[in-house]
Design brief:
Elements (H helix, E strand, L loop, with lengths): L3 H5 L13 H8 L5 E8 L3 E9 L2 E7 L11 E10 L7 E3 L6 E13 L4 H7 L1 E8 L3 E8 L14 E6 L10 H4 L10 H6 L15 H38 L1
Antiparallel strand pairs: 1-2, 1-6, 2-3, 3-4, 4-9, 5-6, 6-7, 7-8, 8-9
């Protein structure tokens, strides 16, 4: 099962992530253009997850520095387990366990393989494709590399490079800095966390030290402030009604 590894790593009793069913996804998506998404994920470190729909699942790569529109910049991309197609719209907080952190739907849209046989291109380690998203567009390539193999894995393992081809959508704009917010909610990490329960993060932080820990502490503080402001706003009408009643 393509999703077995994904499902084995997660406790769906506590995780809001979708369990997924590739056969059901194939039926639901039949005749539709394959989708893609990029999720900005603050877990043990900040990274971006590129996901391409293929055969009822989302092929997935973790891109630590995020995609670059500059064709001269090659971004390292570690291939990870396939994800459910339903994950393509997921945004929220994973409170504990594998992948614990905040997930933002940073970009989404459709993709078109430039290779006639996706499976053959993946086996060869050279997948060319076109993205049509809110932020990422034009021609790209994923090239498998031997230079970043993990210990104990074959040289043709899950290490790739994500590269933008030179076209009308390429350039030196840092798209991750220029467009940092969610395409689903329009929010940043603090607001996404505030929509959940920030108290979850008091004991289940994905990282406590270094730059990631500092970033997370700031996000928790901002989320708590947003939650407090929301609470105060919801209580204001009630206080006003009591005041009017006491003067009548």
């Amino acid at each position: 099962m393509p999703l077995r590894k994904y499902q084995e790593k997660r406790n769906f009793a506590s995780s809001p992530e979708p369990r997924g069913d590739e056969a059901k996804a194939r039926r639901a998506r039949k005749g539709k253009k394959p989708c893609f998404c990029v999720q900005k994920h603050l877990a043990s470190h900040l990274h971006y997850d590129l996901r391409l729909e293929h055969n009822g699942v989302l092929l997935s790569w973790a891109v630590p520095k995020g995609p670059s529109l500059d064709p001269s910049i090659k971004r390292f991309a570690a291939q990870v387990e396939d994800h459910p197609v339903e994950y393509g719209s997921f945004e929220g907080v994973i409170p504990e366990g594998y992948g614990a952190g905040i997930v933002m739907l940073w970009d989404s849209g459709t993709w078109t393989p430039e290779s006639p046989d996706v499976d053959a291109a993946l086996a060869k380690g050279d997948l060319k494709f076109t993205l049509d998203g809110y932020k990422l567009k034009g021609s790209w390539v994923l090239v498998r590399t031997r230079g970043y193999g993990r210990r104990g894995e074959k040289p043709t393992g899950p290490s790739w490079l994500l590269i933008k081809h030179r076209d009308g959508w390429s350039g030196d704009l840092d798209i991750t800095e220029f467009a940092p917010l969610s395409v689903k909610s329009g929010d940043d990490f603090p607001a996404i966390m505030a929509a959940q329960d920030p108290a979850l993060w008091l004991t289940n932080r994905p990282a406590s030290g270094g730059a990631t820990g500092a970033m997370l502490r700031t996000i928790i503080e901002e989320a708590a402030e947003l939650k407090l402001a929301e609470l105060e706003k919801s209580q204001t009408p009630a206080r006003g009604r009591r005041a009017r009643k006491s003067t009548s």
